[in-house]
## 1
Amino acid sequence: MFKRPGVLPGFWPAYSYSVLYLSLIVLIPLSAVFLKAATAGWPKIWQTISSPRVVAAYEVSFGASLAAAIASVVIGFVIAWALERYEFPGKSFVDALVDIPFALPTAVAGISLTSLYAPNGWLGRYLTPLGIKVAFTPLGITIALIFIGLPFVVRSVQPVMEDADHEVEEAASSLGASRWQVFRRVLFPAFRPALLTGFALAFARGLGEYGSVVFISGNLPMKTEIAPLLIIAKLEQYDYAGAAAIAVAMLVASFFLLFLINFIQGRSRRFMETKLS
Amino acid sequence: MSATSRRRILRTEPTWLRRGLIGLALLLTFLFIVLPLAAVFIQAFDKGWAVWQAAVTEENARSAILLSLLVTGITVPLNVVFGLAAAWTIARFQFKGRNVLLTLIDIPFGVSPVVSGLIFVLVFGAQGWLGPWLGDHDIQIIFAVPGIVLATVFVTFPFVARELIPLMQSQGSDEEEAAIVLGATAWQMFRRVTLPNIKWGLLYGVVLCTARSLGEFGAVSVVSGHIRGLTNTIPLHVEILYNEYNYTAAFAVASLLSVVAVVTLLLKKVLEWKTREARV
Amino acid sequence: MEDAGGQSVSIEVRNIRKHFGSFEVLRDVSLRVEDGELFALLGPSGSGKTSLLRIIAGLDYPDSGTIHFNEEDATKAAARERQVGFVFQHYALFRHMTVFENIAFGLRVRPRVTRPNEYTIREKVNELLKLIQLTPLADRYPSQLSGGQRQRVALARALAVEPKVLLLDEPFGALDARVRKELRRWLRNLHDELHVASVFVTHDQEEALEVADRVAIMRLGRIEQTGAPAEVYDSPANAFVYGFLGDMTLFNGTFVRPHDIEISRNAVHGPGAVYATVRFIGDAGGLVRVELRREDTNEEIKAEISRERYRELAIRVGDYVNVEARHSRVFSE
């Protein structure tokens, strides 16, 4: 079973403990959702996840996550580019700030963003006269998800930018490429897998996000209700099977995304390796 | 260092573009990241120090803080032990199912917090698998502290392991083998060689795990039942205050969590620097 | 230091087999290292030499076969019970401990009953520091040392526990050429002083032949030949050993060392002599390398001649010369 059992002690205790812990905390509870959904039977599952309110919630979650992930990629790329390629005062401070959305509890982010973008809020009061409503609209959900998704993109792209081979860039310049051509043909293709990874991470996180969204979304059924909120609504009506059915649909979507991320990372790693050899 | 700075000069864009991009990056960082954080503190102290103090020392706030500390106090040690065991297994041995183990550790990152809470309701809730049995024996897990702990453990267990695995892999097992050949017992090896080598990474994992335990909202929200004074953690208390339009109090309590977040980031910078030192 | 490794032992490896997955690393390996001998395991990478060393140390376990220290079966003994000193290829110094504490480690982790007191530990470590000539650097950390210094600390750390046998994995592999030669001689002298059975792994034939009392040449998990340096060099068992221990060239269907190729301007006389043209002359270094092409078969021949002989012959590229071999060997594979 083992390639190199070697001399180091403690494999069996550590292995058994890890497997036991993961089984109790992850595997058994997770399988409960699938079983619960299954006990309700396919017709019931289908009925639940295809009801207009649930479909509307999926659309809101999916649309806002997609828009936010795209915006995060653009904004995150600019921030990562400035941090990795230029020197400016306070750079390492700004670099540390990028992690705030990771560290700030989602509920805190949620009430703060709502207060900023509410019609009488600091930003909302300037946007409302322009006819832009943010809080309690899908746009508000998107802004909350940009906040959540941004660090994923920056942190995915940064290491790749750092490792980028400067000589390739210089070689392209010396071959007569303009700066824009160097960017378009040499740099951007190298960053693309990392951007894609950041995009997928931000998107996956957005689909499931709850705390930062519930306050700013206003939770209007059919308009600004997100999928995780519906699970809570089902639970409050003691419709456990219904909650499980929605959860299963979400789990399948996010596992598919995780799989996709691994696939992209695996491919880009191979790409990097061939580049080295 | 000199080589990199020389390279930087060679590949620099025109000044106007460089300045423009730096300015844009700063503006975006301010707008999307700094402003939401600053808004918490400004609104927390909107009505003065006394109001802030009253909000965070009030009865329900105090019990929420105590509950959050209790949950964190149970969760973090559990996840430290798991993190060490999992990292030791994965970073030091080759075995079948190693990738499965790695994937399982990543699961909480891909699961919505609400679903993370739901799974425990489905196991331990009144209508759950173990619900009837637990009811007969008068054991309450959901809408009680054990449920909150379980949900928090689920959401936070990857942090320590994820921090330790790459660190231990990069360090390799030579030093531990050397200790064993020199006659050290398993415990002596762990205490004198493994632990000193990973201590900064471990500490960083603990910091992340602590911060997340204190701030977890979605998963805890599902299993807690929002019973004031009993099953309300700090973030849940913030939610209740906010929904009651008690904004200043909500931001006052939220400012506590924001301080934790800022301290986490500071420690991250320090510990990153320390681990980089340890990796050399 | 006469007490270090006081009761040295012989090592015997009997019919060791080992595979990782489907790859056979060691295929029925047996050898014996006598008490007090300095023994080299020589082979290209992938020959299984490091695996064999790790099995002797107890850092890995064989699939079958046995390890004996002084005729006593130690196959099942845990690494920490074997009392071997092991020097890792990349030294494996404890990065968070000073040089002093690194060397003291093996003494400090002993069970309370056999653990020396603090004074004895200090004495012992200071003695070892003197031996490796690093007394002034006792309080430095490994990251503050040069490669050669780290190597010596690793050796002192292994010697502190008074090992019965000393095992070294590519001891000079990570050092630059000059330090390498110095340390090589130093290790030989140290071994003569300690006289503990020592095995070192290397891929550098010059190193093995210069330092070791005896050498085992390994290939693909098998031992091809064992013997004293002069023995294996002068009477290699097969073409692999011959080629691995020195340069060789093919001449008239036999193997010849380039320095055994004789070049002359005379007409062909001997039975094996042929005509060839000079294709290349490399005249930097103690010997002059000459590459030739046979007129009849177009085969390439490599030769090495002394500078004197080169001047005497005054050959140039394109010259037409007479070539013959002084010694040659035929191997049946």
Note: The CA atoms of residues 35 and 268 of chain B lie 21 Å apart.
## 2
Amino acid sequence: MSQSEPYLKIGNLTKRFGDFTALSDVTLAVFEGEFVCFLGPSGCGKTTLLRAIAGLDIQTYGTVDQAGRDVSSLPPAERDFGIVFQSYALFPNLTIEKNIAYGLENLKQPASKIRDRVAELLQLVGMPEQGKKYPAQLSGGQQQRVALARAIAISPGLLLLDEPLSALDAKVRVKLRHEIKELQRKLGITTIMVTHDQEEALTMADRIVVINNGLIEQVGTPEQIYREPATRFVADFIGSMNFLPATKVSKNKVRIGQLEFSCSDAAGSAEITPDQPVHAAIRPEDILVGDASSNYIDATVDSIEFLGSFVRADLSSPQLDGLILLADFSANRVRSENLSAGSHIRISLPAESLLIYAE
Amino acid sequence: MLVFMGVIACYLVVALALPLYAILSKSFKNNDGEFVGLANYLEYFNTPSLTYSIQNSLTISIITTLISVTIAFTLAYGLSRSCMRLKGLFKIIALVPILVPSLLPGIALVYLFGRQGLIKELLFGHDIYGPIGIVISEVFFTLPHALIIIMTALSIADARLYEAAQSLNAGKVKTFFTVTLPGARYGLISAGFVVFTLTITDFGAPKVIGGDFNVLATDIYKQVIGQQNFEMGAVVSLILLLPAGVAFTVDRIMQRKQVALLSARAVAYEPKPSTSFDWIMFSWATIVSIFILTILGTCQYAALIKFYPYDLTLSLKNYQFDLMDGGGWESFYNSLELACWTAVIGTVLVFLGAYMVEKGKGFHLGRSLFQFLAMLPMAVPGLVLGLAYIFFFNSPNNPLNFLYHTMAILVISTVTHFYTVAHLTAVTALKQMDPEFESVASSLKTPFYRTFTRITVPVCLPAILDISIYLFVNAMTTVSAVVFLYGPHTSLASVAVLNMDDAGDIAPAAAMGMMIFYTNASVRILHGLLSRGVLRKTQSWRSR
């Protein structure tokens, strides 16, 4: 990632619809060639932010700078972006070729040049033979590819994707995820994608911006977002997480039930004062069988749920005052340890995976 | 874009709001233009011969509503819920009355049940001139309107509700009262109000067959044309505006609720054959069709025979309109001209207006005001609009006064009179388009007018064609607004029917009425062929 000036700068952006504040004071920088995902639950403001960047819904306050130019109050036509919507918004009365050529025709290029460019784009999205068809004759995935080709036809500096995969079947979605990412890498085009699907964000993005209630919760690489969620919301929203009521004892020490555990001091827990009630958090897959770390307890398997490649177990322990822990064990492990409902096992909660959040 | 919207808004203000204000203020003035407060209203309510019409109008309208909606519902039920044969034919026949002026059924009734009527014995001595004749004419005239609304309401039924009723062992009758009727209730109420409004504001039928039975609509005509008492005409107009306005408002609310009933997940209901039920419905549809065809056939018969009842040989003598008063063939050509202009100008105006309202951004107050103005014409009876135009455009102080008695004012009044339905058709079509088309186009740096001509218009072409045919047909048949506005050289076919009937030339009136029918029927067929051709060419994307 470049250390130079960011390509896109959003400064203190606020958007209100009447009394409702959809975005409040959002500041963000996106670098050239980056793939950034806006991730959050529906209604969190991620689409509003995308539309403000596009100029489709101008913000109430704040600035948008693109490639060193202040575009804050410019209409969409005077900005430099291509956009793909969830509905694709392909023009139903134009053929695929005409759809892709739609923006090119404004550039006053000779017809032969437009034809070549359209053919090139069709090739690029893997549909060289389909140019004469109408959108209604294509499958959802194909329509999605055409919408993408149309958006990048005029070689915009910025590509905006508004939930582009939500309307597709699960299998097609996974395939297209990969294709879009490949295409983006090949073209090196700065891309922002809005999604509510964390898997999509984690697999595609260089950086993820997690948004909730109109506020940015965390900006980071997929790894950072998953491993070190900055807030309780992020920890809860991404992946699954056990939350246990606890009390902070000192730096790196937390008491859950009757036991004290070592814990990570990441995720801003340093600011939490001792004796403050907190939530201790650990992902189910980070719970290990055996006493590999000093943070171990003895637990009973209450029930087991078979989920294919792994098994999710409900664990309880008298030492934890009846709290339930969810743990994911690999299917192999379950077989070798001969785990079943009622088994007594020793589990450990590795300190680096045990996070704490203020209540 | 704002400029366009401003122009169309100005049109609606000049062609609708200002004339309505003119008629309102006129009702508070005396003959010399001085303000007299409620004096005209007091005079009106102290003249029993005038107030009696209120009761007459209400009675006629309520009876017509009950009969018309009952027939329309039973027919629509047969068309959508039975497996009877010839459904397509029955539907076409039931929609025929839309193509003729409301004067025509009255003329047919004169031939059937008049003093020398063909089958007057069927009335057992009752007089066809009066309430009976008006009600029969109005039922004929309003049936297609009610049928369209109720058909729509019945066609959106969810088959799963019927399956659920069946699985719960509900009988046919119980299912009808618990599923069918509640599902169609908004459609029924809406149809009722539409029929009521059409009847209370219609002037053609009571004029031809009403005899001495006065109603509000004919009172306006008599006050203005007969007695030149414009102020009293304005008072009656405003009284007529009241029930029409209420009915219109209730109807809009019902329509909105009907739409809310539509669920995207509904499964279409497929009727199953049932010999007895299908035969009952078939017989009923046949009876209704015979009623409609008899009215139309009688007019055709009347137009073709030499001199009823003395010389029954066939001839085209009655089509020699130039030999009669009423404007002659010129009035027919004028009507064609009016219909063409109305269709072309009206469609452009309505579609652009709807586009501005739907796709415009910001400027919310302006857009809601525009929407209100676009809905208003539906609540204003044609006669009231026509009279309002006299007051507004004929005023010597009005710079637009040169329009009076020209073709232009006829076009303006007709476009305005039928604006609402056309506007709603356009808005519905525009709403069905992906709202992101404009966003994509602007990201591709395409100016809005290019997207309008290349995407919006082609995608909405079926609706645009529907609007133009709607405006054409209504311009051919309308009498109410234009009857006050035509000049010596701009008489119209529908007005000629009225005037020839008034002068006792009933056979030529029937002949002219049939000319309107031939024109509308051929234009309708032509429109059908044309739309099929155009659709095949431009809408090939619709089929997979």
Note: The domain at 1-35+320-544 of chain B is CATH 1.10.3720.10 (MetI-like fold).
## 3
Amino acid sequence: MKEFGPEDALQLEKPTKSFLCPLEDGQGIDFEQFVISNEESKVIFKGQLEIDLRPEFEGDDKYRGIKYTLGEEVLLRNTLIQTKLIFSNNRNEPLQNFRMVEKHFLDEVELACYDFTYPFVLPNSTNCWESLYETPKLSEDEIERIVANPLCVSSDTFYFEGNKLVIHQKVRYTYVRNDKKE
Amino acid sequence: MGLLSILKKVKEKEREVRLLILGLDNAGKTTILRKFCGEPIDKIEPTLGFNIKTLEHKSYKLNVWDVGGQRTIRAYWRNYFESTDGLIFVVDSSDRARLELCRKELMDLLGQEKLAGASLLIFANKQDIAGALTVEGIEKVLGLKENKIFEKRHWAIKACSAFTGEGLVDGMDWMTDDIASRIFMLS
């Protein structure tokens, strides 16, 4: 079988059913922190991730799914956000052409696609990547649907070393309306 | 569809520039970047890898790569030269003992083919420290006026203090204007 490469990730049309590489392949690459800030550099999300126990995941994969809870008002209305990711390469070897392809979906429709390559990651290094994004522009109907149906927005993140898939993360997002009574 | 098309438009519209910040360890590379962005600078640790930051300045989108300056990391600098529009070389003006090493590292960078087209901004940092060498002093030690290597290069040297922020905007303005005049002249 042909291996799943960056081009396949870019062409992915809906969320994958399962993880496409073994957990061990990403050994030594550790994600330390993920922060989202708004335009005024105010932190609006800081790595509060939860394990997303999904019945369709088996064995160790049960613990590979992630859930994020975010504020609806910031992320879905075509605003500029800043993301900050800190990750370590704890291997004694550098990572060459380390590439992230991330796809966001609303149910099975693509919302966004991010593609970024780090040409070189030093061995035994800690690295910080901060980026600016415009969030997708959604219709009021779509926003209502997302808020009413937690977890219908999901993402598949693929990390490649060259063309080889080494990390696959699956995240589901809940968007909370701030004025909602708890 | 969706964000991808928006991003493409942003890219065309917002004119992207890639900057690389290098210099010896403890020169203040990360502090300059943080201070320029208006972020706190009290908890900055030695960079043991890279910091990549996208920011907007004068309607340009700057992709800034700040790579650690420790001796072991310097050997890997060359992996980050590709597609660099501007090189910012940071000098600790108070570290007189290592100015000669600074000069050697800078000369080595300027001899690199992949950086041949890059504009060069030298930040004479830490001007707030008593006893720091002046811009003129740094210019002399680095041989900026005499050396033929600078004749064809777009370059500037600016005094700054990453601690107070003085001089940073001035330097970054020069860098963006210089790159813009080379790259975006026709757009």
Note: Residues 6-10+24-180 of chain A form a domain with the Coagulation Factor XIII; Chain A, domain 1 fold (CATH 2.70.50.40).
